[in-house]
Amino acid sequence: MKEEFEKNGYYVLRGVLTEAEVDQLAMPIRAAFTRGDYDTFHRGPAYPAAGIHSMGPRVLEDHPEIADVSLAHPKIMEAIEELFGEPATLAQYWSIMRPPGAGLADKPFVNGSGAHYDYKPWRCVGSYVKWMFAVIPFIDYTETAGPLTVSPGSHLKSPLMPSDGRVHPVEAAQVPKASEIELIDPSLKKGDVVLMNGFLWHEPRPNYGNSDRCGLYMKFHAKSSPPACGPTIYPTAVHEHLSDEAKHLVPYHRGDGRFASIEEEPVDCIEEGQVLIEDRDEKVLVLGNEVDGWRLPRFDAKEDATAMILDACNVMGSIFKGAEEELGLKLPWLSWLVDLAGPAAAEDAGEWRCRVYGHRTKTSAPTLKLSDGEYAWMSTEQLKEAVTDNKLTDGADILKWLHMWQNEEDEDGQPVTRSFGVPSTHVAYFKYNGNGNPEGTYLVGEFDENGLPMPAEA
Ligand SMILES: [Fe+2]
Known about the structure:
Jelly Rolls; alpha+beta; Nucleoside Triphosphate Pyrophosphohydrolase
């Protein structure tokens, strides 16, 4: 399995689920589409109209038991962790419903025109570098229903670059025009599960048939390769349902109904963001003053208003806005360090979550639009002194985050591969992973003088 997966970028676990297991999984998902309880519902026209209807983790709140026949199915979990060589974390839990006619337009579909890959620094479910899909079709993906085609070996065209001691760029392949892409149909049948490297080019074909094409599209990342935009938040019900051996798959969750979902608007499940901003001389930005003490920059967090379900939980847009408005600092990118969670300050207000990110500036101690005494760029020694003098809020945590950041480690002291994250609205600057590009690569992690991702080659 491992050899084939590494060479081709995908591996099909044939008949790994029984028909009954697939039905057990599909039933509550199909029922939720029928009820209109899915994330694209408000965009209309609703299921069963032709179109691509989709649903995030919400189904797991009322039906956590379907975790047993999907994300935590022993055979799926074991295969994924064997291929990673380490524990996995669930990132995406996404059901797609494509009724008859889905994917068809006025003009005939050109095979290859929908080829793409899903390394996406603008999404929680895409901004990591060691990850894979696990797709469970609920029906046979026949020629008529629409195969999920793959381009064998294409994952090898997007190498990870060495880090600068903090964050790794990716030399992301540019997907060329349709006629230059070789795609094969792995002939997925009900009961099969296909595992695909996250950098593999693939294409869903239109549904030419007369029944619904529906399936579950999960993404997992290796624990050592966290999402740069931060983790997707799941309903606590699923974490609680999982066995002790499987709980680590869903470590980030909320029990107050605020998880990754879109109602008429995106549901906020992260209230605050803090940023550990290091300059090129390894000094860290703190706000406050000599008398009252210092703290990290902290901003109100909010989902992007235009976020769709796969954009959920990426609140970088609000952090960028806060940094620019309050500090006069234009942040080009961030990379997630840790989430803080607990009960909300106000009684009965549910839970509270704060996302902590790292960033390193290209210059030394940039000037902010604050008065001189209201901020400081502190060396590690100065931060330690401030902690000793009780003049740094959350001082011990900040020293820990700084250590994690500078040593490329996670909270447990294990090595991590961090990558670049940007707001979901930055999707507008990226073209590399979709169809019709000139040959070559695009370096994810390079920004222009305005702090925006380098423009794509014309
Ligand atoms: Fe995709």
